[in-house]
Structure formats: structure tokens, C-alpha cells
DNA sequence: TATTGTTATACTCTATAACTATA
DNA sequence: TATAGTTATAGAGTATAACAATA
């Protein structure tokens, strides 16, 4: 007898994530941003990445990919890059006032989106979901 | 007093999904496929999409994007397209033996991956996770 | 006219490899 | 030599718009 043949949980996760990601992208887009820009701004504000390598790691992308985004963000007047006088190889990335303003707007959009996402779920549900997602993450990361 | 400021669940989902998706992509790549190819093969085998519009919808992509993938898959000898004699606008997509073989290999890779993903989770956990993910999906899709 | 699908084109995100500049 | 970051290039996946074929 073959196993019960239920939908693989990875597929359910992939479908949900795609739908949710698209909706989130849309919400961020309507607020003037995008997912990578939001993650970069968020990392810059919440952590204090000492260099771009750390920043790239926090966002989950490669250094060259980060440079790509930072170039666009600098051209858009959102960030500035200045060399560290103590170690001139290091570039410190800083938000401009326009960058901070966009951060605020995207944070608002993200919070609104999150409320929509939580509809019908109480704190206990969210805790459980978070725990289960962490477990999936660990199952794929470890080993 | 500001709200408890917990990590937005959408962010947790996005991070988990990215990590899991990359690992899944890798597993499918090692088996000779990719996520969109797997989704297309799976839809062809499990549903019986009457036309490409239905197939594209099942996979969650646009018609032109599906054409893009089908062109590559046809060039790779995985599928054939033939016109429906009753309605010559409609193209029926069919798996070749090579397509069926790849389907089998990817199915194996997907099952193996799913077992890895489920480590430490019992059926009850999976049920709960699935229910919660469905809820997120609905929260973003509806309205 | 409406529907099915394709072609042409382009955008976003990502990556690797080779390079520059500092140390 | 090693490290921080950039540039050049490319590839995967997606999309829209214009088109061809068929109904």
C-alpha cells in the first residue's frame, strides 16, 4: 500500500510563500520600495552593520548583489557611502533623510500588511507558526 | 507605549521560504530539474489541464511565461505540443517518455526533500502548519 | 470580435569572475 | 598576500504588449 500521498509540505510552503511574497512586493511597491530595498533599509536601521559584507549577510545576498542595490539606492538619493578613515577599504553606508523617510513609509506598509496577514490568527497561532517555520528553516540549514 | 514589536510574521515567512526554496531548488537541480519545470510536470500529471491557460494558472504564472518554459522543455525533449483537432487554437501538452522519466526523478527528489523538511515534526504539526499557511494564503488572496 | 497561444522585448534579482584599492 | 568592495557579464524567472491563428 502506498503512503497516504498528501501534498508535500514544501509545496504548500512554496505556494503560500509565493502568493504572500507577491502581495508583499505589491504593498512595498505601492509605498515606493521593493523587498530587497526594504530588507536593506531594515538591516541598516535595526542592526549596525560595520561593513557591507555584514550587511549583505544580514540580507541574505552576495556582496556583488548588494553593491548592485546600493548603486541604485545611492543614485536614488536614499543612502550615501563614505570610507572609514581608520580602514579605508571599509565603506560605511548611511541613510539620507530621503532614505529615512522611505524607511518610515515602508515600515508603515509592512505593518499594515502584517495586520492583514494576521487576520483570524491570535498570538498563540502566530507563536506556533513561527516555531514551525523555524523548525523547517533549521531542517534545511543544518547538517 | 508602542506595541510589543515582534518580528512581522511575513518577514519570518519570507526568510523561511527563501531558505527552503533555495534548498529545494538545489535538490531539484541536482535531479536535473528546476522549480517551474517541476510544477509544470506535476500539474500535467496530476490535473488534466485542458489548455495552456489552465496549466499556467495552476502553476501560478502568465501564459507567455509558460510558453517560455514549454519552449525550453520541448527543445529538451520533455514535452510535445499538438493541436486539438476539435479546436485548433488549443494546444495539448503531453509528456514524452523522457518527460515522464524526469518527472519520476524529480518526484523522488521532492519526496526525499520533504522527509528532510519534516524531521522532528509529527503529522499533527504538519496539519497545523498547513492550516496556518492556508490561512495566510487566504488572508492575502481574498478581499 | 473573442480566444488561444507565441514572439519580441525588457525588467528584477541573483550570481560568478575578474578587477581595484587598501592593508 | 589577504580583505573590502566594484565592475562586467550572465542567467533564471517573470512580465507586458503586439501579433498570428482560429473560432
Notes on the structure:
The structure is a homodimer of 143-residue chains. The first copy, chain A, is mainly alpha-helical and 143 residues long. Chain A has helices at 9-30, 35-46, 52-59, 63-75, 97-117, 123-141, and strands at 79-83, 91-95. Chain A has a two-stranded antiparallel sheet with strand order 1-2. In chain A, α2 packs across α3 and α3 (52-59) packs across α4 (63-75). Chain A is globular. The model of chain A has no long low-confidence stretch (mean pLDDT 90). Chain A binds chain B through residues 6-21, 23-24, 35, 60, 110-111, 113-114, 116-121, 125-126, 128-130, 132-137, 139-141, and chain B through 6-21, 23-24, 35, 60, 110-111, 113-114, 116-121, 125-126, 128-130, 132-137, 139-141. The first copy, chain A, binds a DNA duplex (23 and 23 nucleotides) through α4.
Amino acid at each position: 500500500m502506498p503512503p497516504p500521498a498528501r501534498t508535500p509540505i514544501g509545496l504548500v510552503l512554496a505556494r503560500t510563500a509565493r502568493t504572500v511574497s507577491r502581495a508583499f512586493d505589491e504593498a512595498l511597491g505601492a509605498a515606493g520600495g521593493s523587498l530587497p530595498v526594504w530588507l536593506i533599509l531594515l538591516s541598516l536601521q535595526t542592526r549596525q552593520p560595520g561593513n557591507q559584507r555584514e550587511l549583505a549577510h544580514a540580507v541574505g545576498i552576495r556582496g556583488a548583489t548588494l553593491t548592485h542595490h546600493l548603486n541604485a539606492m545611492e543614485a536614488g538619493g536614499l543612502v550615501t557611502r563614505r570610507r572609514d578613515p581608520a580602514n579605508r577599504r571599509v565603506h560605511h553606508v548611511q541613510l539620507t533623510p530621503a532614505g529615512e523617510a522611505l524607511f518610515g513609509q515602508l515600515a508603515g506598509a509592512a505593518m499594515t500588511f502584517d495586520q492583514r496577514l494576521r487576520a483570524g490568527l491570535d498570538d498563540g497561532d502566530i507563536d506556533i507558526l513561527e516555531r514551525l517555520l523555524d523548525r523547517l528553516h533549521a531542517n534545511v540549514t543544518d547538517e
